[in-house]
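Try it yourself: sequence plus magnesium ion, in.
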Amino acid sequence: MVNTMENTNSIAIALKKVRFLWPKATEPTIAIDELNIHHGEQLFISGPSGSGKSTLLSLIAGILVPTSGEIKINDCVTNQLSSGERDIFRGDHIGFIFQQFNLIPYLTVLENVVIPCQLSKLRTQNSIENYGSVLNEAKALLQRLDLSSELWHQKAHQLSVGQQQRVAAARALIGKPSILIADEPTSALDANRRQDFLNLLLSACNDHGTTLLFVSHDLDIMQSFSQAIHLNDINDCGKGEG
Ligand code: ADP
Ligand code: MG
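Structure, out:
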């Protein structure tokens, strides 16, 4: 019993019998019987285009809700929350890096990085506790991600792709969310910058104990992660529920 408890406590993300069908679809895009991801794990998720990687990340982030089954994040069954509660939960606990970064182009670098704290009291508190202020943490993260202070007051659209991606990473990490989700964040970077960016991201996650879910079809970078799964190996889509 004790062992079971310990195992349960160490799980950050647990999916049970999760099925998801897009409206009007006849087959599920996601049908995962069981998936457990431990706190602090750095998980690489690969799979062909259209296999459901982004759909899975949206389910874990609570942007989408499963058609059936259960998703537990930090011991909260998020699919049972109202949509407003899920938004708050996501804002508090999950940082997101998108393929196209989704920075607000007319805001400065620093203004972009602090946005998650404006949307989450918990992340603001974390920032203040650990760095004295949200702005201090934003600067520390940008420094950590190797973004020169000369750029901090520039508008996001004035930066190169690689610089924007590091801003997006700082924005995702601010206020110490326990989970970081990155959906093909390196696909716009060239090979050298890809590994540099990845090293910075992994070491920032290590320092914070952040659970990282990293989707990519670039198998060259897979070896940098503590765990790797191929979506097709765990996703039984197309099979009836019986
Ligand atoms: P991946 O990220 O692995 O490329 P996606 O999760 O984006 O795959 O897509 C998986 C499947 O879900 C695809 O067949 C795609 O057409 C479908 N899909 C994705 N987004 C939508 C949507 N908004 N509405 C309907 N179907 C969608
Ligand atoms: Mg995708």
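One thing you can check immediately is this: The domain at 40-65+79-234 is CATH 3.40.50.300 (Rossmann fold).
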